[in-house]
Specification:
alpha+beta, 3-stranded antiparallel β-sheet, 11 strands, disordered C terminus
Length: 275
């Protein structure tokens, strides 16, 4: 580039103006480049698996340094495996399965986690006047929603016989962490509440390793915290909440505030996420 001496004062002003324009243009371009870099999407990873007779999906956004997908999955699986070991009706050796086979009125000792879920379940049963009842397990199994294969609809006589085994009042919790049944064939199914407990447990486990932005879904139970990959509050919705609702309509429930956890419970197994 060749520079020449200005011949007139006006030329000096013109040259200075051009130099200022080029400088400002260069700074603006630099600023745009820095802004673009600053607005890049944070790191994220999603993984899925099976637990409690259903499926789970975990999405983690902006994990802290040193935390990768493998470590997060390991913590999630360990947490869910422990809850499976305690509360699954699909595992014959689980604590719940052993209690269901306990055909005796003597108290049966429970782990603190299972006892806590029983406490909550019985409180909800009382508040709902039995609309929610974990002793409905025999009927759940008879209609093919339990661990056994469904063969045919049960006859009315069978249903009436099974109803004799149902009723949350047949359970008694003891202060020492045990539970007893007044009918030897009471069979409990925690599926209606254990998945929510599992969702909270997984969220707590993730937070112990510094993860603050996540979406945890276990069998349709959802908990979110922090922000989604776009830096905005998580948005969750049901694809078809009503039979006549068009697919994809704007039926959404939004987290109230970024960084604050709020559990969203839906009557669907696979929620639709709106980023």
């Amino acid at each position: 580039m060749r520079c020449e001496m200005a011949q007139h004062p006006g030329d000096v002003i013109k040259i200075a103006g051009v130099a200022r324009f080029l400088l400002l243009t260069s700074l603006a371009a630099t600023g745009i480049g820095l802004l673009s870099c600053g607005q890049s999407r944070p790191a994220r990873f999603t993984f899925t698996g099976e637990a409690l007779g259903s499926f789970y999906t975990i999405t983690i956004v902006a994990p802290p340094p040193g935390v990768d997908a493998e470590q997060a999955r390991r913590i999630v699986d360990e947490t869910l495996d422990e809850i499976n070991r305690l509360m699954s009706t699909y595992q014959a050796d689980s604590e719940l399965s052993r209690f269901n086979r306990h055909a005796d009125a003597t108290p049966f000792s429970l782990s603190p986690s299972t006892y806590k879920v029983f406490q909550m379940a019985l409180r909800i049963a009382e508040e709902s006047d039995g609309a929610f009842d974990i002793t409905v397990g025999p009927l759940v199994n008879a209609w093919g929603f339990g661990p056994e294969a469904f063969l045919q609809p049960p006859e009315e006589a069978v249903i009436e016989a099974l109803r004799a085994r149902v009723g949350y009042q047949k359970l008694t919790l003891h202060p020492d962490g045990a539970v007893s049944k007044s009918h030897p064939e009471v069979y409990c199914d925690l599926s209606g509440i254990a998945k929510g407990y599992a969702t909270d447990a997984v969220a707590a486990a993730l937070e112990t390793i510094g993860i603050s932005s996540y979406m945890v879904e276990v069998g349709g139970e959802i908990r979110v915290a922090g922000a989604n990959p776009d830096g905005a509050p998580w948005r969750l919705g049901i694809e078809r909440p009503l039979p006549d609702t068009p697919s994809g309509s704007d039926n959404r429930r939004r987290q109230g505030r970024p960084g604050r956890s709020r559990r969203c419970r839906f009557l669907c197994r696979y929620p639709v996420l709106f980023p």
